[in-house]
């Protein structure tokens, strides 16, 4: 099952890919319901290591066709946290495909300076675009699995993964369910206004460029830009009341653009919200598990 099965219609050009056959071979070792699955990325970059998408498939042990979810990690690449959510999903009867995004883990060469999110906004655009295309191919792979209910595919992400998931659900028609943890829209605003971006702002302005230039470049990977395409899908947003990384205004911009879906506010900031981890695990598992009932 490739992307040429009529699923390119209605997809913006940036997120389209040529039809191709998806590999079904298994690499790695099986641990209970976990299987490592490297796959070629639909995007070829100068770094060979980045041209293979490394995934971990957590197959639920429940019988029959079950919902399936692509799981995306945080900016810092905390893989154990993503695996924790995958395991919870599997326990709720949901197959989970943990996808490692561009330039993370085995996808980044030892001495590489490239990152998915960079001080160069053009590199960020390239990295996020590649991530969305990787998610689209992951959705196609899941949809072809005999144990998967292809009408109940979803995507879940945390922080950067949540923003990428929000973008992916606008780009991939197969994705019917999305849960976004600590995510928001108007990403250029969040990036420009953050304290950590002070040096970036100074360098950008020294080059004769403006805030408006910065916002325009990143608008092509801002989920708010394409949010209308996801209206009518099942979306759950989980956010922090005092998030210092994703300002409330950015969360509300995404929430409004999606048509005001269900949103749950947890007390705390972007990092201190970890106190609510157990509750978030249960909420995410229930949300996707209910798609199969």
Give a short summary of the structure.
By secondary structure, the chain is of the alpha/beta class.
Principal-axis shape equals: globular
Side-by-side strand order of the widest sheet? 1-2-4-3-5-6-7-8
Order of helices and strands: EEEHEHEHEHHHHEHEH
Biggest sheet descriptor? 8 strands, mixed
Structural class: alpha/beta
Total helices: the number is 9
Radius of gyration over all CA atoms, rounded: 18 Å
Strand content: 15-25%
- Please estimate the helix content: 25-40%
The parts where pLDDT drops under 50 for at least 5 residues are 1-7, 19-33
Our measurement of the CA-to-CA distance between the termini, rounded to an integer number of angstroms, reads 25 Å
Number of strands: 8
Mean pLDDT: 87
Structural features, described:
The structure is a single chain. With 293 residues, this protein is α/β, with parallel strands linked by helices. It has 9 helices and 8 strands. It is 34% helix and 19% strand.
Task: Provide keyphrases for this structure.
eight-stranded mixed beta sheet; 293 residues; alpha/beta; 19% strand; single chain; 8 strands
List the helices and strands and how they pair.
Blueprint (H helix, E strand, L loop, with lengths): L33 E7 L11 E7 L7 E7 L6 H13 L3 E5 L21 H23 L4 E11 L1 H12 L3 E7 L5 H7 L4 H9 L4 H8 L4 H4 L7 E7 L7 H10 L4 E5 L10 H13 L4
Parallel strand pairs: 3-4, 3-5, 5-6, 6-7, 7-8
Antiparallel strand pairs: 1-2, 2-4
């Amino acid at each position: 099952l490739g992307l040429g099965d009529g699923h390119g219609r209605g997809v913006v050009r940036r997120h389209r890919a040529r039809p191709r056959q998806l590999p079904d071979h298994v690499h790695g070792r099986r641990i209970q319901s976990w299987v490592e699955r490297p796959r070629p990325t639909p995007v070829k970059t100068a770094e060979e290591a980045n041209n293979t998408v490394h995934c971990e498939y957590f197959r639920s042990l429940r019988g029959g066709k079950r919902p399936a979810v692509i799981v995306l990690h945080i900016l810092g690449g905390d893989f154990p946290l993503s695996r924790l959510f995958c395991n919870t999903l599997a326990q709720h009867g949901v197959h989970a495909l943990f996808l490692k995004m561009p330039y993370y883990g085995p996808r980044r060469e030892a001495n590489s300076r490239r990152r998915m999110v960079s001080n160069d906004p053009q590199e960020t655009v390239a990295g996020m675009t590649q991530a969305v295309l990787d998610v689209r191919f992951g959705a196609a792979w899941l949809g072809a699995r005999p144990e998967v209910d292809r009408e109940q595919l979803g995507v879940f992400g945390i922080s950067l993964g949540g923003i990428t998931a929000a973008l992916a659900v606008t780009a991939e028609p197969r994705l019917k369910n999305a849960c976004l943890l600590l995510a928001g829209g108007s990403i250029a605003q969040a990036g420009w206004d953050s304290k950590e971006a002070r040096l970036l702002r100074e360098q950008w302005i020294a080059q004769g460029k403006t805030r408006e230039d910065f916002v325009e470049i990143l608008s092509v990977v801002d989920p708010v830009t394409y949010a209308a395409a996801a209206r009518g899908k099942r979306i759950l947003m989980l956010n922090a009341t005092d998030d210092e990384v994703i300002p409330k205004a950015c969360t509300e911009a995404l929430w409004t653009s999606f048509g005001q879906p269900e949103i749950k506010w947890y007390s705390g900031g972007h990092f201190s919200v970890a106190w609510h981890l157990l509750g978030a695990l249960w909420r995410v598992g229930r949300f996707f598990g209910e798609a199969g009932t």
